[in-house]
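Next up, a specimen:

>
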Amino acid sequence: MLSKLAVKSLLNRKVSAFLTLISLTVSVFLLVSVEHARTQTKESFNRTVSGVDMIVGARTSSLNLLLHSVFRIGNPSNTVSWESLEMVQSHPQVSWVIPISLGDSHRGFAVLGTNEDYFKYYQYGNQQPLKTREAHTLSDTVFAQPLTSIVGSDVAKQLGYQVGDEITLSHGTGNISFTHHDDHKFTIAAILQKTGTPIDKTVHISMRDLAHIHGQESLPDKEKKVTAFLVGLNSPIAVLQLQYLVNQYQTEALSAIVPGVALAELWNLIGTVEKVLLLITVLVLISSMLGLAIMLLSSMRERAQEMKILRVVGAKPITLFFLLQLESLVLAILGAGLGVFVSMSFFMMFNSFLSEQYGIFVSANVFNLSTLNILLAVLTATFLVSFIPAMSAYRSNSALS
């Protein structure tokens, strides 16, 4: 009975009720969407590299080493000698070492020199291996043929490449280069699956071919240089021990970082943006709550006669109190439901765009503990905000008892 009366009362004030409903829907949509996108982006960010226990490069900050070795951002402070790589590789706790060399590009995309172990051991996400666009695992002979390249999905899509196409690399990492390796045409042997990581924007070639196009194939090992190298250990327990050993290495100034720790540090630096967005959405919700309170308070004078009639037919003051609370709750539940629905629809429409353009994989399923907490917070705030006008109705009608 009381619920029907609350619905009819809202229908009698449909314009103001509708505007309040729209305001609540937008608030919930923003809160749920920002929190869901924040959570999903953080997970995607932290899954950029998986299965790598350590990254070693020339002495620099952990963030700089992470940015240029994993995200292809910035430039290394120096190179690392092959002897240092072999020193780490000879440690009894080291399972594998993958060299990476950067410095060349192809039409604005980074070129990474490495070996077959890169495709064997490098993982992303929840320890997902790198696979071709056809979902095939790359073999140990992926670089068996000279001048072979493996390109990321974004490279192939943006430049319209297919397997078998020939490409020319350029010296330097800028979008425009005046030095091209025109004498060495690389053939695309495979195109990688979409990973949502910098791998999608990378052209992979062998260390052998990289040395060949720079005329360094005949250099002895002691003169070879790499940008950095990735390390996999037999036991994660040995991480801190090996990290200390590398950082204290006297022959060459090296830095060893743990990817997970460095990623968390980097996220803390850029996490200010998410906090600002969350603050803005909270302010929007507060403004919606204030709008709800104003609507209820402004209607009290208009509804004075309605309240008297209800009292005459037997409604108690506490009934009027719960009537106003129920009206607010109906609007809050409808606004919360519509907000969640709009948020799901938004991510269903734009998740492919976000993954293709920004490498961010956001699920359309927004139902999680954070969403539940947001909805509970909205309902609680609605009750608190409606308490003042509801109490006003209770007190003003208590005198009629």
Notes: The first helix runs from residue 2 to 12.
